[in-house]
Amino acid sequence: MIRIKILPLLAVFLFVLAVSCNSSQQKEQKVSKGYDLVRLNRIADVQKELIAKGQVGSNQVVIFKDGEVIYDSIVNSGLKGDENITDDTLFPIWSMTKPITTVAAMILFEEGKFLLDDPIEKYLPEMANLQCLDEQGKVYPCKKSVTIFDVLAHQTGWGYYPRNIDGQHVLLSDLWYQDLEDFSKSMASIPLQFEPGTRYLYGINTSILGRLIEVISKKSLYDFMKERILIPLEMNHTKFHLTDEELKRLHPLLWTEGEVTGFYKHKYNELTYSKEPKLHFGGAGLVSTTKDYGNFCEMLLNKGTFKGHQILSPSSIDLMNTPINPELDKGTFIGASTGFSLYNLTDPVRDGGLSPKGIFGWGGYHATLFWIDHKNNLYGLIMDRSSYSAREMFIKVRIATYQALR
């Protein structure tokens, strides 16, 4: 394992802050036939470059290959309001919650608790008699029911429904609903953008899936996750709710609003992470540490197993990342199709990341990212917290990774 903690060289931040390089340290330097360490060190150059551009603050990249961490690079910005990353740092992972919720659903699927073509009103009565919108925006009774497959594949017709609260754009809040049952009933009142199963639209689907898991398992989503995923994977710091002490460990968010850029500990959290709301958003609500989420990635890389615990079968892992929807032409994952809340790289040339066809993974609202590569037996994990697009970081880190492989 190589672990590098670096403060970047002098850089001019977007809002004119200086960064100084105080230390550079490497541990357990080793030579491997599988990769070139000198070339792998270019990952840290990418991390420093994007801090200098004002796109990220302190950030961490982990590369795991052939059963061990071969690279672990923390680059701290030293900028006012930012904080150094430690093993205890908590990151809101937002949509990287989705693959965990999807794994929870697939556990129930393997146990025969539901079929993919089951209509969701079989479990959620409020979803009977949904309304759809035609091309002119006119409301009419949907001709088809939403199926669990539609929910998993983001083909329901539900999108995201952000609100403007006191001049702040809020994507999702756990203060808007009492629990997932209340959330589900509220979503049932919103007309679908199209007939279920006919198109792809990224949205609140995985939080609806969380409610389905609650009804089918007869447990809260968090309790089911803890029992079947988080505890077996030793993800002890991955949770929906935080204590006051844990809230202090949240990584600051780099946020730009108008001409003002800064680091914010809580102002733009959107979710409270409080124990009071009994709401577990399966599509966005978890916080995690780098080590915790790395264990989840390791399970996906190992086709469903972790330290002897089989969470899912290899066939379920394959099903989850099978390309279903058309290739994305904008956003972070251009050149990739999507499956069950996972992208799958289908056009490596268009992607431009030197990565093989078939890598899969996902990302979060605040720029956390991961990918799984079965061909090279590796995963990559990027942890930071920024409101900027993560596309440049995602591509450049992968370029730096794959040019180092032998």
Automatic annotation (TrEMBL):
<dbReference type="GO" id="GO:0016787">
    <property type="term" value="F:hydrolase activity"/>
</dbReference>
<feature type="domain" description="Beta-lactamase-related">
    <location>
        <begin position="46"/>
        <end position="388"/>
    </location>
</feature>
<dbReference type="Pfam" id="PF00144">
    <property type="entry name" value="Beta-lactamase"/>
</dbReference>
<feature type="signal peptide">
    <location>
        <begin position="1"/>
        <end position="18"/>
    </location>
</feature>
<keyword id="KW-0732">Signal</keyword>
<dbReference type="InterPro" id="IPR050789">
    <property type="entry name" value="Diverse_Enzym_Activities"/>
</dbReference>
<dbReference type="InterPro" id="IPR001466">
    <property type="entry name" value="Beta-lactam-related"/>
</dbReference>
<dbReference type="InterPro" id="IPR012338">
    <property type="entry name" value="Beta-lactam/transpept-like"/>
</dbReference>
<protein>
    <submittedName>
        <fullName>Serine hydrolase domain-containing protein</fullName>
        <ecNumber>3.-.-.-</ecNumber>
    </submittedName>
</protein>
<keyword id="KW-0378">Hydrolase</keyword>
